[in-house]
Each structure stands twice: as structure tokens, then as C-alpha cells.
Amino acid sequence: MERKRMDCPALPTGWKKEEVIRKSGLSAGKSDVYYYSPSGKKFRSKPQLSRYLGNTVDLGCFDFRTGKMMPSKLQKNKQRLRNEHLSQSKGKPDLNTALPIRQTASIFKQPVTKVTNHPSNKVKSDPQRAIEQPRQLFWEKRLQGLTASDVTEQIIRTMELPKGLQGVGPGNTDETLLSAIASALHTSSAPITGQLSAAVEKNPAVWLNVTQPLCKAFMVTDEDIR
Amino acid sequence: MERKRMDCPALPTGWKKEEVIRKSGLSAGKSDVYYYSPSGKKFRSKPQLSRYLGNTVDLGCFDFRTGKMMPSKLQKNKQRLRNEHLSQSKGKPDLNTALPIRQTASIFKQPVTKVTNHPSNKVKSDPQRAIEQPRQLFWEKRLQGLTASDVTEQIIRTMELPKGLQGVGPGNTDETLLSAIASALHTSSAPITGQLSAAVEKNPAVWLNVTQPLCKAFMVTDEDIR
DNA sequence: CGGAGTGTAACT
DNA sequence: AGTTACACTCCG
């Protein structure tokens, strides 16, 4: 496994995993695991991977070192929110490790997509990636090797969000918008639009109200990209 | 400090230190530190500096980036012999990055500082390759993961065993022996056997007791090598 | 300036 | 003690 990039079944198609043995120094003999996205970007840690993949992929039970899913890891996800409720309202949003989902209104599982859209955080993000990231994130999600069922899941999840938010007060508007934008970006690539249509047909009632905002968001984003 | 060559108190007279800030790219804002010998030769890293200065200057606690001596670094010395940690029987002899001579010196209480304060050493004579070359052989041996280095390590390790068997003494004896070996290796410019002899002649009183074991150990190793 | 390779603080 | 995650070094 040393020094050879190999496919990783637990990640979307095109991703590679590599294990490199340290050959000198204090830590000689230990190994480092790297992942490569389809585009060739190198990932050196799980948090980095999470950051890149965003909320669309739950890495909670993904073992970075082995490259496999470990259900046993599920129990370890916790402790992010508890600091919040102990202290004040502020506190930095946890952009790290785990699932962004819980951050927002606990009732409505809100993806943290917006975090992805704000690389201006302390992380050493580069300007360009900011735009690119959101997109890739979704492609991968759809192309994920976990077969069609995943795709379906994803779409449904996205749709659920707007639906739930509709009935809620203004406070959640931002989040709704963000979701819309994310979806728009998602579809902006090309054939995706078609997919959405299909989705709408499946659940017209759900998408009906939200459609307009979605389009708007998309237009803007598209221009910005260009 | 940027872009300006300044004196470096931790190095011999005539040496200059320069810090250049990176102005673009992923690492924008970071800086690169360079040193210049009195003759103008540029040094871009600590290993390069060590190679050039040789064993006479202990850079173990020299912080390349700041240009200052950091005693705190002393404990942080790392070593190349990682397999050793499995055997717990003895305290680890510290033959690491820092030149072996240091260890010997510690026994005889020889501060490196004075060497530093005497630029009249080999330092000021940059042009002369004659001195520089012979030394490089050693540096490479000890400091690099090259074959030569491995050989050296093996010799040292091999010697530890015989010594223990002889039952010369506890604790310090080990280190003394190792130091002796290290010194011998260190000072030699040719075959190791010759080195040992030279060391003994230089300090008969000091080396007397240890000499025999050393020779034995070495002989064995030599055979093994062949 | 980039980035593979290594060091090491912070966690578990 | 062992692992993780990422800062840093060194050299191309």
C-alpha cells in the first residue's frame, strides 16, 4: 500500500487513497495517509476532507487511516454543541470535524453549507476555492459510489429543508436562502437542471413555493462565477 | 529585518542573517531566513549550515529562524535510531542530530560557546575546500539517512551490546562508551580503526579503561560489515 | 514559492 | 502512550 494511489470505495468515484511510510526522523516507520480528489487535490487529514466535502458527506464514521466506514465510530460524535449551551450565545460556530447539521435550528436539520461559502474564516483558504468548492461538493455527492440510493437521499434531504422552513418564521429566511443558493450552484453545472426538474415532478408540492427564490439565487451566482 | 543582512550574535563574526518575506502565493506573509558566511556564501537551512560548520559548532540548540540559541531545544534533540525504543533496559544515549562530539564534550565540560566566539576557527576560511570536504563525509554519514549513516548506526548499536556483556558498569558507562565511539568516528577522516587509535593517543588517561572494550566492539562490527 | 516530508502540540 | 492534525523545514 505504500506509495501507491488506490481507489477508495468509501469515497466518491475518482478519489484515491495513498499511504506513505516515513523513512527517517523521529517518526520513521510511521505512516501518513493522504487522499486525492478526482481533480488531484491532496488531503492530509479528516478535518480537511470534511471541510472540503462539506455537510453532504457524513464522515462521522469514516476512518481516515483505513479509508473505510466504521459504524462503531458513530458514538463518538457529540460534544460540539454542549459548549454552546453552557456559555453565552456567541461562541464560534464549529466549522470543524463533524456534521454541521446540528448547528442551526435544532428542529430543522440545516446544513452548514454557508460555512463552506465563507472561507474567509481563519482557515487559510484561497479566494478561488471559495467558489469552486460548493460545486464540487455536490457533484461528488451525486456521483458517489454509493449508488442511486444516495442520490435519492440527497435530493430528498435538500428538499426537506425548504419545506420545513416555509412554515417557520422570518428568522430562518437566511438559511432558506442559503439552501437555495447551494442547490442552485449544484444545478448550475449543466445537466443538473434536468435533475431538479425530475425532483420537482416527484414532489411538486414541496418545491412549488421555493422554486422562484431558487432561480433568483442561481442567476446571481452564475454571473458571479463568470 | 526584511531584506536586510544583519549580524548574528549566535554565529561567528562576519556572518549575516537575512529574512525575506514571501509576498504572494499560498505562503504569502511567511518568511525565509538566510545566512551568509563572511565570504558571502548563502545558507538556506540549518542542515546546510551544520554541514558547513562541521562538528566544531553545536547547532543543536541553534534556532535557524530566529538566529538565536535556544537552550530549551536541547531536550528536543531527535535521533535517527528509532528501533531502539523497544528495548527499555537502558537510558537512551543521545547521539543525535547534534554532533557526537557534544556528548563527549559534556563529559569533559567543554562549552561550545567558546568555539562560537572564535571565528578564527575554520569558519573564516571559507575558500578552502580542503577542510570542508573531509568533514562533509562525516556530516553526511551522521546526518543523513544514507547508507553510510546506517553503517554508523549499526556500529554504535553493535558496540552497546558487547559493552553490556562485559559488565563494565551501570548507567554512565554506557554513555561514556558510546561517546567514545562517537568521538572516534567523528574525528576520523579515514578508516574507523585508525580513528580509535588516534583518540586513545590523545587522551590516554581518559580513554584507558574504555579503550579495550571499544576495540573489541569495533572489531566485531567490522567483521560483520564485511 | 510550492509541497513532500517531518516535527510536535493537543487530544484521546 | 498513541494518534491526529497541521505547522514548519528544506530544498527543488
UniProtKB/TrEMBL annotation, chains A, B:
It is found in: Chromosome; Nucleus. One of its GO terms (cellular component) is histone deacetylase complex. This is Methyl-CpG-binding domain protein 2. The keyword Repeat does not apply. GO terms for molecular function: methyl-CpG binding. Its main location: nucleus. Residues 1-69 form the MBD domain. Gene3D superfamilies: Methyl-cpg-binding Protein 2, Chain A (3.30.890.10). It comes from Acipenser ruthenus.
